[in-house]
Amino acid sequence: MQKNYAVLLKENGLKSTFQRTHILENIHALGHGSIDSIYQKITQIHPTLSLATVYKNIVLMVEKGVLVEVPILGQKSKYELSKKEHIHLICTACGEVEDQDYTEEKAKLFHQLTQKENFHLSSQQINLYGTCHLCNKI
Amino acid sequence: MQKNYAVLLKENGLKSTFQRTHILENIHALGHGSIDSIYQKITQIHPTLSLATVYKNIVLMVEKGVLVEVPILGQKSKYELSKKEHIHLICTACGEVEDQDYTEEKAKLFHQLTQKENFHLSSQQINLYGTCHLCNKI
DNA sequence: CTCTGTGCAAAGCGTTTGCAAACGA
DNA sequence: TCGTTTGCAAACGCTTTGCACAGAG
């Protein structure tokens, strides 16, 4: 796991450091992490981590395409590892973000639906807001 | 035009003021406005407008459902008037946001595609990032 | 050894808040 | 008139920056 992130970083021209691999591991574990939640979590095992370091690295890794920003209605942005297209199910009660994959077929359909002449699509973000299964039980 | 916004405000329990109707007119004219662009624009005709007033009113009108926040990758949120579901085409070169309506039929299809058990959908935001026709010419 | 990355503290901004005066109904 | 809204200025909190030291390759 740790080795993987070290490789990922090097592939993108970044040195592998304790801080960086842990940011990546943390985002992977959380699925989607906010700056603050990442900082809080890593501080538990590495108390001298600086918030500024988290900011600098998130910015850097977004620039390098290792991470993707996920802007969310009424919350601060979260960050996720770059991966194939998917939908975000965002719970307006607890704030959790869940990924929902869609098949190749559905992906194509989306592209057709969202096609527009004279607009060169580079990426898309589909966010569905509602209440998740856990919050629905309450 | 101005009358309409006065009515819209009153329907939502808000007093009609110069500042509020102008914020709404401005967002309508821009399509999507950031706090700052709204403030800049209105200040030209009403120089004593306070930025704090713009903030307070935007927050209030979002709460009342008159406005909707549009969070955008790498930018500050913009705001739009509440309206029927649509797609945002966001130009990563110039930052402009364009709305693309979709038909009832397509809307249904979207809902089917994005269906998930145990998740109660309340709203959706579909953002497509790319370059617009104007920026493509450059 | 060299260059990059980290931590700290300070600076910078965007946003929110409290309050007295102005305004809408 | 009465409750709401505005403008101002201060406070706040998140984010960025500069620099000396530490660490990766």
**Rg over CA atoms of chain A:** 17 Å
CATH superfamily of the largest domain in chain A: Winged helix-like DNA-binding domain superfamily/Winged helix DNA-binding domain
| Count of extended strands of chain A | 5
Amino-to-carboxy terminus distance of chain A: 36 Å
The gross shape of chain A turns out to be: globular
Total separate domains of chain A: 2
Task: Write down the oligomeric state.
Answer: homodimer
Task: Provide the spatial order of strands within the biggest beta sheet of chain A.
Answer: 4-3-5
What is the top-level CATH class of the largest domain in chain A?
Mainly Alpha
Class inferred from helices and paired strands of chain A:
alpha+beta
Q: What is the CATH architecture annotation of the largest domain in chain A?
A: Orthogonal Bundle
**Poorly predicted runs of 5 or more residues of chain A:** none
SS strand fraction of chain A? 15-25%
> Tally the helices of chain A: what do you get?
6
Major pleated sheet of chain A = 3 strands, mixed
How is this fold's topology laid out?
The structure is a homodimer of 138-residue chains.
Chain A: H1 2-11, H2 18-30, H3 35-45, H4 51-63, E1 67-70, E2 78-81, E3 86-91, E4 97-101, H5 104-113, E5 120-131, H6 133-137
Parallel strand pairs in A: 3-5
Antiparallel strand pairs in A: 1-2, 3-4
Helix pairs in contact in A: 1-2, 2-3, 3-4
The structure holds a DNA duplex (25 and 25 nucleotides).
